């Protein structure tokens, strides 16, 4: 399942595999080159599903496109491109609070961003992939190595 060499991928980055967004090309290129399943938490799974449905609500994709994106995500789960990682939530939330106390006043991190960094740490991962600038800074400050993406700075 999750290992130190497997990157924790922020769900908003994974969402770019299912919705056309500015960073989708870089994310698709990275994923095509990355072997093996990626671990996602149950919370991350809900975040991806909600992101697809929210795009339909906002009118950035049609209902049919949303259904296709959801089906593609479900298929990726079913065939093992992702593995659902059980996380010790009390420990992750405590770590998130600790990270917030230490870094949010200087970095301006949002709660979910802190929670994902804490989740990566609780899962024992050493790499982190995100497009969010503040979350990147937090991941770096927490000792995680940032994953670079081809064609994206």
Low-confidence segments = none
CATH topology: Rossmann fold
* Number of separate strands: 5
CATH class: Alpha Beta
Radius of gyration: 15 Å
Whole-number mean pLDDT: 94
Give the helices and strands as they follow along the chain. EHHEHHEHHEHE
Q: What fraction strand?
A: 5-15%
State the share of residues found in helices, binned by percent.
55-70%
CATH superfamily: 5'-nuclease
Write the CATH architecture name.
Answer: 3-Layer(aba) Sandwich
Class by helix and strand content? mainly alpha
Distance between the termini: 29 Å
Question: How would a textbook summarize the main sheet?
Answer: 3 strands, parallel
Shape: globular
